[in-house]
């Protein structure tokens, strides 16, 4: 009786298992059995899915004399298990292995999303063998190579620096406000951009913010297509510092705030505060002038500086990001943008 879950009408007309060779176990050894993706099993196997040795058809195999009919399936299964395996497939679930896409991300080759795309396209080689199955696990000491096609795609990715103004959101449009990416037009490109990159509408595809700025904040906003840069700036282990200039008021004091603000509260801004019951990392906080503080942070919680200031009685009047790592806002005019040059890095 058919179960009703994916059974096909022509199931009975298909060749019996002993006439289909060893494709099922070979495919299972190659992929991660725990992966939920099942739609790829219908795809015609790539040439590197097939064993290098010539496979004999069922009619070419010597007959097994004296074997009862019921033992044929067990014999085929044992033969498949004993067949030579290609490197790495027999350790996919061994201790100490991890997903190929995760390892590629940890090695800084690309983002995990990019790794999945490259794996599906067959652009990743492990110990010389092409991989095209998501979920494949490898050892950290195995050699990973990237097909030139993937390197070409990665080399064509761009990173855009915008001087965001008040009223634009960093990412998707919300509450009627336009996203900052709408500022990236040929007409709006800064004339001081000395990069050799020629603008293309393709640069707008998958261009995502790497570190947000609130709608009422201004300054340096980075949009990138490159997963390596995104991870560098906003990854969980990012060590890139970000510098902000913050104009504040203290109670009724809007001028010469520095002379009225307690020194112990300034120390709390540097270290000792918590947000959402999580202690904040140490920060560099100093007076830029009587009404303006300079913050240097190595983390980026939502509205972090504004919430830190609230905890010590300060009101933020204006907030501007002026640096991310080694890349500065500089003379980039408000509302304009430029490309990250080839000789620049965060």
From TrEMBL:
Its UniProt entry gives the catalysed reaction(s) as: uridine(2604) in 23S rRNA = pseudouridine(2604) in 23S rRNA; uridine(35) in tRNA(Tyr) = pseudouridine(35) in tRNA(Tyr)
Q: Which Pfam families match?
A: PseudoU_synth_2 (PF00849), S4 (PF01479)
Could you list this entry's UniProt keywords, alphabetically sorted: Isomerase, RNA-binding
Query: Where exactly are the transmembrane stretches of this chain?
Result: none
Which spans does this entry mark as compositional bias, Basic and acidic residues?
1-30, 37-49
Stretches for region Disordered: 1-96
UniProt cross-references to Gene3D superfamilies, sorted A to Z: Alpha-L RNA-binding motif (3.30.70.1560), Pseudouridine synthase I, catalytic domain, N-terminal subdomain (3.30.70.580), RNA-binding S4 domain (3.10.290.10)
Mention one GO biological process in which this protein takes part, according to its record. Answer: enzyme-directed rRNA pseudouridine synthesis
Q: Does the keyword Isomerase apply?
A: yes
CDD domains attached here? S4
User: Is RNA-binding given among the entry's keywords?
Assistant: yes
Q: What is its EC number?
A: 5.4.99.21
Molecular function terms from GO: 23S rRNA pseudouridine(2604) synthase activity; RNA binding
Domain RNA-binding S4 as annotated: residue spans: 98-157
- Identify this protein by name: Dual-specificity RNA pseudouridine synthase RluF
Q: Which organism is it from?
A: Paraburkholderia graminis (strain ATCC 700544 / DSM 17151 / LMG 18924 / NCIMB 13744 / C4D1M)
